[in-house]
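Morning F.,

Quick status update on the modeling queue. The single chain you submitted on Monday has been processed. Sequence for confirmation:
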Amino acid sequence: MKRLIGHIAWTILAGVILTGCSFDEYVREVLDNSEDPNMAITFANGVIDKPITTRAVTLLSDHMNTMGVWGWQTTPQGTVERLFINQKVTFNVPEDKWTYSPLKYWDNNSTYRFSAYAPHASSVPGITASIDSVTRSISIQGVTLKGCNTITKGTPVTPGNFNSVDDVDWMVDRFGQSMIGITRGQVTFSMQHILSKISVRVARSKDFKPDSIVAMTLDSLKIGNLVCQGNFEQSIHNDSIGILAEWTPIDTLPRITVCSAKEVGIPDSALYVVESLMIPQIIDDSQYIHIWYTIGSDADGYKGRYYYIMKLSDVFARFMAGRNYILTINIGPEAITFDAGVAGWDDNYSEANAFSRYIQ
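Structure tokens below.
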């Protein structure tokens, strides 16, 4: 019998040497595979919350199909072990759940702490993600945007979902999730947007005749010379000063220009023509808004095409993470009116948050 036990032990040790794993890691995997499936650590469909003020508005799987997770287990003896190291967790659409491998299991007597971001860095070429072992602050390095616009034909409601474009809507769970093993509940993350969003909508000035009398068309609109690359370092302080310092724009690539939906009929009520992700940044004097529009048509007997340019800094001073910057352009026969407001990511535009500029 002793000879048999010694043979088994040598077989295990040989397997550890051949695979390059430590003995503890090997034993843990053996134990994991023998655990009750009902004790497996699982992840719920996280919610997308507004920055700072938490209120769920949609599910993570509506925006992402992967997330990166770090997890720590604290044993009753006070030993801290890392269960997850930037673990890729993927949303399985047919099964309607988040999955990963190999499975890890709850210990009733331990406590747990989890941190997450989305999507997983491996889903986007050139991105690296890491976490500080002490502060649990997440870093996402090398984010690059192309200036995609989700709106191609004009829409009265902004979609708020960037699945259909190349640009990725990066998110983090700012506070992490703490749990005790005995609860054995699903880990649910509260994700928040960390990029900025700019939305532009157009409407007819109240001084102008309704569209049933005179046609008006936005030929195109461009917001130009925007920094498109940056690095993110999560602030451990949940305050505006910390959030302002989270992004470092990297001005080494050619800048981008965001273009609106083209040849859109301008109605009496505002119509969205731009919704685009932005690297948080301070606006400089090289950034402009260009507008081309037509009043009248061949059927009206009068048709004139107009062009206007203004500095973006005359409307916004900066783009902050997780904010939706909304520019409403009211076009009339003599003056273009700009109303600008800043709202939460999924908030509707509020006149109370607006200020106006009248440009002759």
